[in-house]
Amino acid sequence: MNPRKTGKSPCGRFLLLLWCFASFMLHGAQGTDGTKSRSISQIKTLEFKIREESFYNRNRTEIGYTLKFKLPDMARKEVLSPELNKGELYIYNKGRKMTWLPLFKQKKTEDIPEGENRIIDIFNHIFRMEKEDENFRREYYEKKLKGVKLGDRLTIEFHNYELCDGYLFPLTFTVKDKDAALGEIHVETLKINGRLDDKEFAMEE
Fold first, then answer.
1. pLDDT at residue 124, rounded to an integer
2. C-alpha to C-alpha distance for 126 and 203, rounded to whole angstroms
3. Which residues, in sequence order, are CB contacts of 18 under 8 Å at separation 6+?
4. pLDDT per 10-residue tile (average), the chain, 205 residues
5. pTM here?
6. Which of 199, 196, 156, 160 is nearest to 178 (CA)?
7. Residue pair 157/143 in contact by the 8 Å Cβ criterion
8. What are the DSSP E strand ranges found in the chain?
9. Farthest-apart Cα atoms in the chain, separation
10. Cβ of 103: how many Cβ atoms within 10 Å?
11. What distance, in Å, lies between the first and last C-alpha atoms of the chain?
12. CA 15, CA 122: separation in Å to the nearest integer?
């Protein structure tokens, strides 16, 4: 299956958010235009190319990376830009995290830090919502679901829904802390059910 080009906009950063949105399509549904979306139950792997913009005060930073998922609990993120961070590697596998920083030739393996455990927590939470909440499911597939609230402060807004290989995905995300925009995530390419070897997610102690 060939990668799906989604326009000029590239990339992003929040691993847990992408894990989230990949979970929104547990069951197929029909959108407002009558197009039938395919069931997420058919998805085994996901590969993204992402551009992420972060906002802090009046400063804007950008990072590009690839992100690979082998559902339900393996992920690999490799930084493409900026040049200073190129080659940084982050692997998540069954509760463990491996980080490789080529600039310092430093490798670290650890349990997923507490703040990042939300990846799995949110995945399971949204899995249940998609499975059990008919209104949530209907709004999503009718492209009326504008986003989700994570905790007391964080909100993730969805934009630019598009069918990719028959699956409905939002291709742009806005991340907000209450009313303040923290950044935007842009999906440039998306590949579904490509072959991913478990070796790509291996932890090297």
1. 53
2. 27
3. 12, 48, 50, 67, 69, 185
4. 46 52 50 62 81 88 91 88 96 90 94 63 58 80 80 83 83 86 89 91 80
5. 0.76
6. 156
7. no
8. 4-5, 45-56, 59-70, 74-81, 89-93, 96-101, 106-111, 147-150, 154-164, 167-177, 180-192
9. 53
10. 10
11. 33
12. 11
Full set of structural domains in the chain with CATH: 4-185 (2.50.20)
Strand 167-177 with 154-164, pairing: antiparallel
3-state helix, strand, coil split of the chain in percent (to 5) is 20, 45, 35
Q: Specify burial of residue 88 (Cβ count, 10 A radius: 0-12, 13-18, 19+).
A: middle
Tokens of 20: 């989230």
25, 69, 52: which is closest to 173 by C-alpha?
52
Return d(Cα 38, Cα 28) in angstroms, integer. Answer: 5
156 forms beta bridges with 148, 175
Q: What is the pLDDT of residue 183?
A: 87
By the 10 Å C-beta count (0-12 exposed, 13-18 middle, 19+ buried), 132 is classed as exposed
CA atoms within 13 A of residue 70's CA, in its CB half-sphere: 15
3-state secondary structure of 85: helix
CA-CA-CA-CA torsion sign (25, 28, 31, 37): positive
What's the token pair of residue 32? 């407002």
Structure token digits, residue 83: 């040049």
